Amino acid sequence: MKTKMAVLMVIVGMGLSSCIFTAKYSVGGTLVGLPTGSGGLVLENNAGDSLTLTSNGTFTFTDGVTNNGAYSVTVTTQPSAPVQTCTVRNGTGTIDKATVTNVIVICTQPGLFAYVANGLSNDISAYVIDSATGELSAVAGSPFQSNGTTPTALLVDPNGAYLYVANNTSDTVSSYLIDQTTGELTAAGSGLGIATGNEPAAVAMDPAGHYLFVANFADNTVSAYSASAGTLTAVTGSPFLVGEGPTSLQVDPFGNFLYVTNFSSADVSVFGIDAATGTLTVISGSPFGAGTDPISITIDPTGAYAYVANEGSADISMYAVNSTTGGLTAVSGSPLATTSDPTALAFDPEGKFAYAANVTSANALSSYSITPTSGALAVASTVAGGGTLPVSLAVDPSSSYLYAANQTTNTVSVFSINSATGALTAVPGSPFAAGDQPRSIAID
Question: Is the pLDDT assigned to residue 69 strictly greater than 70?
Fold first, then answer.
């Protein structure tokens, strides 16, 4: 009797032990782009664990997932006040004895404001966007004086709250708070400028808005900073060596890799991004060959393909992106010959079309359709750019309008986008006046 009881106790004890030590791991990430006071966003994990979010920042689902268990984060209800479209990245996978913190939820709405860095007049033009027509009107107080000299590149952070500007001849990057109602700019955080390398030429940010990267053309480096409320702090090991003459850079849509075009060495450097620290590590096989004078890079919204505009060889390099390693492999037909010297590339957020400046003829803008299975590009439409030397392109978050900064004619051209064909049509009043030598444009 005692023996049977002992065996029973052992069996029961083993069962309890199994329950006690069946660990569950949390699933969460970062939400960006939700305006203050928004409501209605509901996420769900594994079609059962719901989570309502009302502000940007980190989030964690209530229910954990056991080791080797699958997780799948989806948007079940989109924000309604204001109406937005939220998408999930890094939303699926299998638990591997660790919590999941890299899910990214990005919310967008039609563009509200446009900003242009004017290199010669040392100021920033700010515009209100008419969502119905795409037309631009000056924000009160525009242009805003730059806190550095020769502002050359700018970007709006994923939350639409801060504008970061690289100042080419003062070797600094500045931060500005964006008034969400008026679009006005005020210096914030590192607004007066934090040191970069020599001749900063381009800026990029990870999708969650944690890290800012600056390409320094003259000293062949990339500076990396952690970003918090407009304040920038150099990450450990920054700056990081790249190829010769870095001119542009992009972070992949999942925030795992940084891609840098090197103008003088005719290649692309690729780094893995440490999600916890922002430190950069060169991946195996980097750098990858490009054409002559690569000047601009863009990555499609799915992260499957990367494209580089080679100004000197008048072509576009096309690559398949290895989502695991970050490596680049030329696709069939690469490089794609262009009639003129490409100066800028951009993708629409929906990933239907790529846009390029100066490819079919000088100062023209073209849209390209993308073959999803191969990444190959084919010209879909071409239109006169409306200005001279278009050096920067941007598509608004709704994929409704394309904006081009024209450096020589000191203007911004605006085109409506045909959602079915990608064809471009100049909007009323285009082009719109900017400052002296506009070099970069960004949409909030």
Answer: yes
